[in-house]
Amino acid sequence: MNNEIMHIHVQSANCMCVKLAAGSINISPYYSILSSQKQSKTKPNTMKTQHSFSRYFSLFLLFLAITTTLVSPSHGALGKCNPSDYKGLMNIKKSLHNPYELTSWKPNTDCCEWYVVKCDIKTNRIKEFSLFQGVGGLSGQISSSIGDLPYLETIIFRSFKNVTGPIPQSVTKLKHLTMLELSHLSLSGPVPNFLNQLTNLNYLDLSANQLEFDLAKVKFPKSLTWLDLSDNKIFGTIPEEMKGLDLHMLNVSYNNLCGKIPYGGKMQSFQNTAYFHNKCLCGPPMTGCKKLNA
User: Fold this and answer.
1) How many CA atoms lie within 13 A of 263 on its CB side?
2) How far is it, in rounded angstroms, from Cα 266 to Cα 245?
3) Which residues on adjacent β-strands are paired with residue 139?
4) CA-CA distance, 288 to 142, in Å (whole number)?
């Protein structure tokens, strides 16, 4: 506690405050009691017992006020951690059943010191969430509270086959997001209609899940340069708009896609392994399209 109390100072005639690292508290009510004890020295000795009790009681109240302030999460216990980020992270931990991988996420501590997440050095807001396969057998679902970390730039959630459920729609709120990897999980359902709203997103890896949706209906942001949708249950055709993306990497293999691969852009720059093991994709760089149409 000594490190937290900086000094006691008088702000006005009616306000004496204890200056703390997290702010200040008004101790005027308690100080006035102490002052009254000094003035009471001139009273008869029969009052000394009462004066001593009042003095110690007022000191106790002062101690209680200071310690209550120090342990409150809203007054310094969280350190650099933003209270809103702290709340969102604790909800995420709960949705994953308080796993071993998140043991550093202790209540009322500085989230900027936790494993798995990183804070921006200037704003102290959470900018990165990176959770890889550990030894704890993590399970549960990705909480919608992930969308309550508005300054996230990177999300990596990889290799936890007991993580199920859909991709949270709340991801659409993460306007600073540049990298989204939710791979080797057991996510199911469609890709939410949010991708084209993430205008800074350039890396998307949803491989090795149980996702099932019509690829032709998905709109991708123009900023995208890396796309891995392999090893899912995706059906439909590859949309023509995809050839307008400046893709450096593409993999849609091991799905249920069909139809002709769009011609143009970067689509033919990838090897056939980017497209193989689908239901009936054809056209360069794949072979057999003419035979399919015969």
Assistant:
1) 7
2) 8
3) 162
4) 41
- pLDDT tens digit sequence for 216-259: 999 999 999 999 999 999 999 999 999 999 999 999 999 999 99
DSSP 8-state secondary structure symbol assigned to residue 167: P
Instruction: Compute the distance between CA of residue 223 and CA of residue 241 in angstroms, rounded to an integer.
Output: 13
Rounded distance between C-alpha atoms, residue 258 and residue 129, angstroms: 35
| Residue 137: per-residue pLDDT | 74
Q: pTM for this one?
A: 0.74
The pair of three-digit structure tokens given for residue 4, joined into one six-digit string: 């937290």
Residues of the chain with pLDDT under 70: 1-75, 134-136, 288-294
Which helix (H) or strand (E) segment holds residue 88: the answer is helix 83-95
Helix (H) / strand (E) containing 242: none
DSSP 202-221: -EEE--SSEE--BGGG----
Residue 280 identity (one-letter amino acid):
C
Which pairing describes strands 280-282 and 256-260: parallel, antiparallel, or unpaired? parallel
The type of residue at 155 is I
* Residues near 269 by beta carbon (within 8 Å), at least 6 away in sequence: none
Please say whether the beta carbons of 177 and 171 come within 8 A. Answer: yes
* CA atoms lying within 13 Å on the CB side of residue 197: 11
The whole-angstrom distance between residue 172's C-alpha and the CA centroid of its chain comes to: 13
How far is residue 131's CA from residue 229's CA, in Å, rounded to a whole number? 19
Q: Residue 49 contacts by C-beta under 8 Å, 6 or more apart in sequence?
A: none
The Cβ of residue 6 has, within 10 Å, a number of other Cβ atoms equal to: 11
